[in-house]
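User: Okay, second chain of the day. Same drill as before: sequence in, structure tokens out.
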Amino acid sequence: MAGGQGSRLRPLTCDRPKPMVPVANRPIMEYAVDLLIGQGIKDIGITLQYLPEQIMDHFGDGSVFGVNMQYFIEEVPLGTAGSVKNAAEFLDETFVVVSGDALTDFNLMEAIEFHYEKGAIATLVLTEVPSPLEYGVVITEKDGRIKRFLEKPGWGEVFSDWVNTGIYILEPEVLNYFDFGVKYDFSKNLFPQLLENGEVVCGCLLSGYWCDIGNLDQYLQAHMDILAGKVEVDPRGTLIKDNTAVLHPNISKKATISGPILLGENCRIEDGAFVAPYSVIGDNVVLDKEASIKRSVIWNNAYIGKSAAIRGAVIGRGVTIKPGTNILEGAAVGDNSLINERSMIKPNVKLWPNKNVEAGAVVKESVVWGTKHKKELFGTEGVPGLVNRDITPELGAKLGAAYGSILKEASIITVSSDGQPVTRMIKNALATGLISTGVEVNDLGDVTTPVNRFAVRKLGTKGGIHVKSDLQNMQKCWIQFLNEDGINVDRNIERKIESMFAREEFRRVKSGQIGEVLSITRYAHTYLNYILSGADSEAIRKLDITMVVDARGSVLNTLVSSLAERLNWNLIDFEGNIEAGSPSFSQRRKYIGNMAELVKKYGGHLGVMFDNNGEKILLVDDRGRVIDEHTFVALMVLILMKAKRGRTVVVPVTASEVVEKVVKKYGGKVVRTKTAPWAVMQDALKHEEDTAGGYSQFFFQNDALYAVVKITEFLAKENTTLSELVDEIPDFYIKVETAECPWEKKGRVMRSLIEETDRDMELIDGVKIRHDNGWTLLLPHADEPLYNIYSEGSDFETAEELSNIYKDKIKKIIHG
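Assistant: Same drill. Structure tokens below.
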């Protein structure tokens, strides 16, 4: 399979298909051909799409390589299985599917024999990897039959560290499951269909080296691995393994060459030049006097000028680097570019082919669009980072351009921030990036995320972006992306934004098509009017509620004060009871006990501690009892069920199973979903028709102001107290802890936990293991090298015991 564009390898693939990218001085695909020849396979069909002529011209009919080659070109993308179906005339017996752009030394005969032994219709070659997020994760039965697989999971879905390598042994009959010319994928379509039909589909774990060379980091690492002897392949050139002198007429005796390195043909290395270990130099490369190369890959026909220094970079074909230039780690310079004297290319900068960098220039960004950042940008609630370090105006503009580029031109996006100067700065940068792609921007100014969600739905825009401060660290912020329903974008959209951000192929429109920023003021008042339009304001006013409140930030404070005035809330300000400054929500919650005392002192109906962005709350009832996050979910469910019997409620897998008890009492239904905010919101939105009297779970769960209004309305209309509602919730005991786990061990931990337990399990998000007296949920943390451990027991001691059991299990798995 050789149709790949290799977009994540750009600029190396700007003018060549990925299988033709040189690795250790040979096109990647040559190694795949070598592998097949070594297994005795000489009839090879090649599927092509992107720049097919280059592959056909290089390999011809295969006779030079001692094989027979046929080519099958896709006119339109057909998916992995569809492209193979395109070659159906060639496939009249058991056949092997391999990638033309991956590097491996697997013994495929082991997998072929395994395939025949199991009588399988399809066998997937598996390997073990430390970080399985970008692959198809697979778990098998003891006999090798595939039990479950999932393509490119989030951390909560990683149930194994065994992944699909994209190498398959297949029977021709598999192609009968779908029509010719239809876009069809092996992992997403064909294999699930085979399993559903009861066919024998197996996974064969092979030892050996495998790398799909999906990005520039993996590209460089593949070279390091070849030079270190970790993969059995035959690179092209002279392999120098140590520091022995190199006797060659074109290599100066005054040059220093320290192996392992790979030298191509006809290289010239001048006096004082230095080539450090783990460097690869192509054919016809010139290293001028005192030039220095360390852990870099230099393609054919490049010139490295006097005293130039290359550090951990990739230099394309025919590039000229003038004297005194420095190119730093992670940079990639496209073919035939000219880097003039005394220039500096900063780390991770990418230059597209045929670019000209002026003398003395310091290139901090890619020539067109900016610096390269980590591939996985998104965390649990958007893109996180320290302000003005990780989250900078430059990143904001680039993220805005990435989001805008995956939308249609002239789409409208709503932007806002939480009122902090730094978040406002990032919001403005995002808006600049958006309009550069021809997207229009509605700027709500300083509001909360719930206001932005409401505005997206009310104004009918294509989505929204809100920048907010972190709940725990005020020096950190989050960039939240919303879809057209006002909910956090799902993982598919996150991946599209990340991919566009990494590729930097942003849509650039003409000056007359640049979008505009429309300032929409006072939209928070429209939002408050909407909340009150669905509430019985008169009943709330008559109750004459006394409320102890902690609402930080001018935005939230203004909203709370406006509601209090219109609903006759008597507010007792709690701010004076907390340390001065702008403490985070997590810092303030330590004082919730003080709030409880104040509620009792003043005979208040309740106490409310809002987070800085108006999404989350901590409550205190009229008896001074703290209502934490888990109890709040149960309280919300109780109110919803009392408002409308028989309705459906949506809760994450982390919620207490007391929810089921409450719902059963009122004849309703519980839907459990993933913990990611977008997943909970998405499912809650599906059941919005289950509202009664304006009791929307979607807003109740994600909008703190809405929740407080509806709680006070319920107290007024039902003539009850918050403590009486809490008393109706059965007792439950949940323990929440974390366990440290290196990123590269998360998949192994999940697989081992699944394999070792014989108890009932759920794999909605992470793995939930049931015990006679409770359950434990083990969930890989999306942003940190941790596992979250949620345990519920019949009493607190049981919950704690379950938690400790699995903390110990995780430690043992990590340490072998």
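The mean pLDDT is 90.

User: Thanks, on to the next one.
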